[in-house]
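Handout, tutorial session.
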Amino acid sequence: MSSEYIQFGQFNSSDYGFYLLEREAPTPAEKVITENLSYANGILDFSNITGERFFEQRSITYQFRAYKLPYSERKLLENKVKRLIMSPFDQRLYDTHDRGYYWVGKAKSIKVDDDATYDTLTLNIEFDLYPFAIKNNSGIDNYDDWDTFDFANDFIQPFSYEVDGKRELDLMNVGENSLSPTVVASDAIEVIKNGQSYQFGPDKAKDYLFSLERGNNHVTIKGNATVRFVIQSEVLL
């Protein structure tokens, strides 16, 4: 089997004997907002007005090939693969090329080439995806799995903390944009960031007004609880 494979919904390319031939993942197009004003040189670009860059959906395409299959098996495999890949919507796409991350979206198209001369079945799959890869760390507290640790983009920090009264923390967001982490607390807590107070507890784990900017974020936690931050950073790969 090929060492490179993808997993999308119930389809795993290696399970069906497909070898990866090509992968194309160009960067997504930027959402550009400009204004051409009279009596002004050039144009005004408002794309970065919030301090972040915004992007359109991105396309990732793959070419896979299965070898030495008789015609009857090729047709059965073609039909099964089309059903498995085209049915899911807003599913996670895992790619061994980007270990430790996943993409979210849908399959846009599948083109199949059936070669009777060499008994091969070739798939050309195009995915329509959210522009950023998402860090797959929701189940990790410490980076013990060095095979999936991204030395270029990751930052070594725990995700769970014991708070006894008050605790100061520095939380690192290594993503390309700000994010609102999920806060899992065993009891009621108060999180203070930049003078703003946010309340969390067993019945409230999300507050979209509480966000972590790119880079280091200093927070103060008040309360008595075990607190876990699920920081799924978004990276432009």
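The second record follows below. Compare its token runs with those of the first.
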Amino acid sequence: MTVDLIPAGWLRRTAARIQRKFRTLFTPDSASGSAVESAYARWAPIYDWVFTAPLVYGQRAAAREANRLSGTLLEVGVGTGLSLPLYSRKLTVTGIDLSEPMLERARQRVAREHLGNVAELQAMDASDLTYGEASFDLATVMYVMTVVPDPASVLAELERVVRPGGTVIIVNHFASERGVLAFAERLLARFSQTLGWDPLFRRERILEHTSMTLEHEERLGPLGLFTMMVFRRP
């Protein structure tokens, strides 16, 4: 089924079901750090069950790009660690997330799957990293930019902690300009607080707030909902 064949009525019904199903999972407050942390603490017990299928395309694509390289990798927004088994053992991985309940599940995954290349998992604000300058060779940031209160600050921190010449891989949903998908995004935007992400997040909000060079850009499944951007730090 292609995007052009999705009936508008189905999209409306799906959006309404999402709102009803997850209404209690998110706070109605603004996207402050505390609100996001509270929201994802509620997601933690069911996160893998809900998000494995839609997120796996981006996780595999980002890991594929990262695995071309070697050295130290920072994953921002590691969540429950769904992507951790995908990284090559030649990469030494550090993961951060705002949610301690998510990280606890990530630690259990590391132990269960014997992921010896995962160096540490820490609770940390992506817009205020405690790492020094040029601490990592590369970073992956998947499904984070539409959630954080200040994407520009996150980008600035990434440029600071990744070494010159290093790589930053961003996977995110960006607003469509036209077509059925754009219509669906406008519907879902009504529920952005409930969903915990902004369906109308513009691609330009990344490009306008970074001095890094965009080396590769690729649309990903399902249905082209997500985009991977690969940047090189000057």
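Points raised in discussion: Residues 1-6, 18-33, 46-50 have pLDDT under 50 and may be disordered.
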